Amino acid sequence: MGILAATVSGQVSRRSFLISAALAGGSFVIGPRFAEAAGTFTPNPFIRIPPAGPVELVIASAEMGQGVYSGIATLIAEELEVPLAQIRAIPAPADPSRYAHPMLGDQITGGSVTIRGFWEPMRRAGAAARMMLVAAAARDWGVPVSACRAEAGEVIHPESGRRIAYGALADKAAREPVPDRIDLKPASEFKLIGKAAPRLDTPNKVNGTARFGLDAHPAGVKFAALAISPTFGGTLKAVDDGEALQVKGVRQVVRLSDAVAVVADHTGAARKGLAALRITWDPGANGGLTTAELDRRIDTAMASGEALVAHESGTIAEAAGVRGIEAVYRMPILAHTAMEPMNCTVDVRSGSCEVWVGTQVAGRARQAAAQVTGLPVEKVIVHNHLLGGGFGRRLDHDGIVMATRVAQQVDGPVQVVWSREEDIRHDSYRYLNLSRLDIRLGPDGMPVSWRHRVVGPAIMARFLPILFKDGIDLDITGGAESPYDIPNKRVEYVRHEAPEGMLTGNWRGVGPTRNAPPVEGGIDEAAHLAGRDPVEYRRQLLGKAPRLRGVLDLAAEQAGWGTPLGADRGRGVAVTADFGSFAALVAQVHVGKDGALKVERMVCAIDCGQAVNPDILRQQVEGGVVYGLSAALYGRLSIADGAVVEGNFDDSPVLRIHECPPIEVHIVPSTEPPGGVGELGTPGVAPALMNAIFAATGKRLRDLPIYTRQLGRA
Question: Is the peptide bond between 705 and the residue preceding it cis, with omega within 30 degrees of 0?
Fold first, then answer.
């Protein structure tokens, strides 16, 4: 989400300052040890060293394919002096009091802040445990602590040659005091951090023993198929379940105010029973809603909505030049379409509730189930599983709420699985976004004023209020001022929410995915108007942002910027400075005479500070580019009669294997504190493509997705 990011000038941004101030009252520390199992050394909530077997590391963040189990384990293991082969990563329970993210103040995985926030705390946790183990061995041997050292899961006394495994020290180490002073390794001494290593979660995913939410099958579990009111805010009017109850294996039909669930012995029977229902819905106030109406509403908001100033420097009125760019960029409604559809297993009992789910917000999931059942939160247990993709969808807990409501009417545990159609038609959407740019150029062709009006919802007002200040969503407006050195800037924000009943939320890349197309498209338009090369134009404007200019130079060099291309081909560039990291992306495309588009190559340069695992970093950027390509080429949901029209991959496609271009990722070596990576690869994709298409055809695109536009010659 760009949370706690600094501006490219090195100064703290407004949203960074506000979050820092909000969290300044407390810091994340390694405090008193927690209760140990018999013979197990548990110096803090994250480390368990049993007498035998692997060291267990409790990972506070959810693993959704981003490699966080390996990333966090590497931080702890580096200071604990344990090889990754001796580590077992296990998910943390839902308990924000122990496992809240230090930057977010809640048990949340998202916003590319996991490694950034845990960079020091997890290393300190490992170092503290190591120091206690070394102290225990030294005490047992009757030698000074300074005469001992830790290595590969053992404490060694070099002078005598004695050594002892951590497990054999567990009981003694548990009696050592937690050290007051903890010194961390300098980067020059890293053995694990910065090195490529196999992911800890891969073997179980390969052999089929990895457990996702769909794999949760507690004893006696039943399975439910779900139909939710198709219209936003609609309700259930009537249902004829006679035929459904005749289906073999169907046990009951659960009626909710806005949904119906068929509960059966297995999913096949539940799906068959659901198809046999005769449901009548009351569409409610949104029954006649269409895409055209939503577009009209956001256009009206752009023209006449209340605009709040989110950023201002210089004086726009006095900076007006002769030449300029006036452009409107339009982005559609997007779903997340994670491969694992929404699912949740719940067992509501008298006085307690148990939940099995894959979620990015384990603590909020626990609270949601408690609110539905009326139970105290301590009576709710949440088992967090691996996520088959998150992308921000599982930052919301509506699926847990729905499953708990169903489970209240079912005897025993029930697994509620959404179909792909329900998943797409009842997502937490990235809603419509509109940007209007007014860029004025001076006599030398360089920008002298930048005015950007952003229209969209205030997700953070609901999701993370510390990022909502004085009526301004600091995420959606973050970066809208551009990273470029322009003397006069003004960013305006018009809050425009989706219709009531339509859930909007965070989408991979969050605010930057909304602002990168107008910012990077707009600066490209300015370069063309000035008759300048797009890369050189940007370089001249990034004199105060050396790290961003560095990745721009690296991407351009690796992509062969300026070298001739064949007919009908073009290159486009985009840069991103957010999530505490810096990225540049060069896209190369071919556009046929018939307008057929082929993306031929994507070249990325990344400066994210210290890379914890370069292989995982590349995987994350590659995945982000693929996700961005899917959205840029295909992503668009339409509304008719108050409901989402699209429902599956036939009418809401994602990028296919044969369409995926070669993706190159070049990493800038650095020992700076790590920035975020998980969302970094996505925002620059659409503007780089749009700029490449212009280079190939002379046709300037300002609306997404690209494949819905005719790419004929200008």
Answer: yes
Residues in contact with 562: Cβ distance below 8 Å, sequence separation at least 6, in sequence order: 533, 535, 556
For residue 325, report the phi and psi dihedrals to the nearest 5 degrees: -120, 130
What are 288's two structure tokens?
A: 């006649």
Residue 580: what pLDDT? 95
Q: Do 327 and 403 meet the contact criterion of CB atoms below 8 Å apart? A: no
Query: Where does 142-244 have alpha helices with state H?
Result: 166-173, 202-207
Q: CB neighbours (10 Å) of residue 282?
A: 14
Distances (CA, A) of 620 to 403, 438, 439, 575: 31, 34, 34, 17
For 385-480, strand residue ranges (E) read 414-417, 433-441, 447-456, 468-469, 472-473
Longest dimension (CA), the chain: 83
Both tokens of 136, joined, read 């225990």
Strands 259-264 and 222-228: antiparallel
Count of positions (residues) in the chain: 714
Compute how many other C-beta atoms are within 10 angstroms of the C-beta atom of residue 592: 11
Q: Which two tokens stand for residue 350?
A: 């008298």
Which DSSP string do the residues of 287-353 spell out, in sequence order? TT--HHHHHHHHHHHHHHSPPEEEEEES-HHHH--SEEEEEEEEE-BB----SS--EEEEEEETTEE
Note the pTM of the prediction, 2 decimals.
0.94
For the four alpha carbons of 101, 106, 108 and 110, in that order, the dihedral sign comes to negative
What was the pLDDT predicted at 627?
Answer: 98
- 544-567: pLDDT as tens digits: 999 999 999 999 999 999 999 989
What is residue 36's predicted lDDT score, i.e. its pLDDT? 57
**Domains detected in the chain:** 31-207 (3.30.365.10), 213-284+342-417 (3.30.365.10), 292-333+429-697 (3.30.365.10)
Residue where the block lists tokens 């198929």: 225
Task: Return the structure tokens found at 397.
Answer: 């807990």
User: Which residue ranges of the chain lie beneath pLDDT 70?
Assistant: 1-38, 318-321, 708-710, 712-714
Cα–Cα dist 629/431, whole Å: 18
Residue 707 has what pLDDT?
77
